[in-house]
Automatic annotation (TrEMBL):
It comes from Strongylus vulgaris. Keywords: Membrane, Transmembrane, Transmembrane helix, Transport. Belongs to the ABC transporter superfamily. ABCD family. Peroxisomal fatty acyl CoA transporter (TC 3.A.1.203) subfamily. Residues 398-588 form the ABC transporter domain. InterPro entries: ABC1_TM_dom (IPR011527), ABC1_TM_sf (IPR036640), ABC_transporter-like_ATP-bd (IPR003439), ABC_transporter-like_CS (IPR017871), ABC_transporter_sub-D (IPR050835), P-loop_NTPase (IPR027417). It comes from the Eukaryota. GO terms for cellular component: peroxisomal membrane. SUPFAM superfamilies: ABC transporter transmembrane region, P-loop containing nucleoside triphosphate hydrolases. Residues 40-264 form the ABC transmembrane type-1 domain. This is ABC transmembrane type-1 domain-containing protein. GO terms for molecular function: ABC-type transporter activity; ATP binding; ATP hydrolysis activity; long-chain fatty acid transmembrane transporter activity. The keyword Cytoplasm does not apply.
Amino acid sequence: MAHLRQKQKEFYLGWKFLKSLGTVLPLLYPRLEYATLLTIASILCAAGYEVVSYNSGTIIGKFYNALLSKNEAYFWNLFWKASLIYLGQSLLLATTSFSTWLLYLVMRRNLTIALHKLYYRRSIYYMLNSVDNAGIDNPDQRITQDVERMCSTLAKNIFPYILISPGVIAFYTYKTWATAGGFGVAIIYIYFIIGVIANRIIVSPLTKWTARVERCEGDFRYKHVSVRNNAEESTFYNAAEFEEYESNRFFKRLLKRQLGATLWKYPAQCTRHKNISHKILDLLNHSTDCVFTVLQNFFDYYGGVLSYLIQIFPIFIFLSYKDMDGPTLAQQISNNAFYFIYLINSFTRLTDLALALGELAGYTQRIDELVRYMRRLNEEDSIAWKDDENRSSSADLIVAENLCYSAPGDAEDLISDLNLKLSKNQKLLITGISGVGKSSLLRIIRKLWEPRSGTVLRNFTLKDTMFIPQRPYFPPGQLSLRQQVVFPLIDGGKNSQEIDSNKIMKILEALRLRSLISMCGSLTDPANFEWQAIYSRQDTLSPGEQQRLSIARVLYHKPSLVFLDEATSSLSVDAEFRVYQLLNEVRN
């Protein structure tokens, strides 16, 4: 079966990222619900934190005043006031962190459920994984890992700071202008512009490298999943050396991509700035006791130096404080330093977010690519299939006229000009050599493949029809034996009360599978093994037992129409006769 891959796509931080964000945001905020409320709550908490931070920053200057003026009563008043302020600041910081964590959970829930809805509609998951992925690598990774990382980055590292930053910057710009004039504001703005240009140059390639790393992570993980699912077959081939070589090849390619991403992150770290909420006191006191390199912390601590450079305007140029006494001047200088540093860090916090935005852009565009492709498949409709609107009066279940089909991506037809009519209560056996197109015809009837030409009329509904594929499928996840038999019905869903356990027991008895009940503990106990793994091991269930368990589903659901794709190929003649005898009893 064809599985096409296009050339690897590159992602960048630019206009395409904004378009991708426009696609994904409605999935994160589908309506006025928890995500919206938590976003508002996070913004309010962050805004409240900024207000308290202003008071905590300016109270330091008041301490200088109280100490230099030797006013003990004023000092103790400030001490208790500062204690309450910092307590409130700690509570607001914890509340902000808590609300952004809840926002991450709700965002991930909304986006994952929305992607699942698209992924499992009209068998799109089959198209992506088995027919043509349209260059979309590892859709499972995009739905699981990329969504998790995108929501985590967006909720915890970007929201709500990027939303309140304009207001914070405007407020401290006003404070800086009032004390240092336009020159002081200009110095800080130029400092910020230099940082923006440096980050723009560095972060744009980082988006591309993030997407590359994610692709290689998915390929490496899929290689190990493949080894796990085919361990027995690989061992029969004595392929341990090959599997080790291939696993290492995938891993080395991943390490190469990670190294490239790390090399691009290094210069970004050189211009990275610490969060003011964590380091404001260190900056005010010129603390340099950290383990990072000088380059990595250049902008962190140079902001403190720059804040005192700006002090020359009100003190030496404008002579704004010439009439102030010592304690009042110390308080004013401390407050000015706080205003300048906070404005610098409000700007540099935005450039600090550039790293997070660069990674976010990679995740968002990968998810957007998946969403757009799935939506396009959902909107497409084919004229090759026709469903009879008057099913009850038609005697034909399937009518194929001049049908031609081939494997996706294959120019050579498997079958040409097929005319077929299958009437109700009629049995049809299709035989032929391997590869002639027998299973492919079932894929056409099931609408998994698109015919090249001709039409197919279907006078049946999928609700009353069952397809039993060649390879038995037993979903993993600690499911009970009863759930495996009633699959795809959900045991525990709205129809779970209608499930007849006695009927299942009789079916297993008729198929000589009653030993499975003791193996699983009981009919309803969650099995303490993964079905997918255990059923791929012949020493646990033979292929014939797997096929009989698949037939148990047909006997339980009693559909009007059944398509069996070599569903009894592993059974003995006697067992096969018994299975068809049971199927006939159900039919009659």
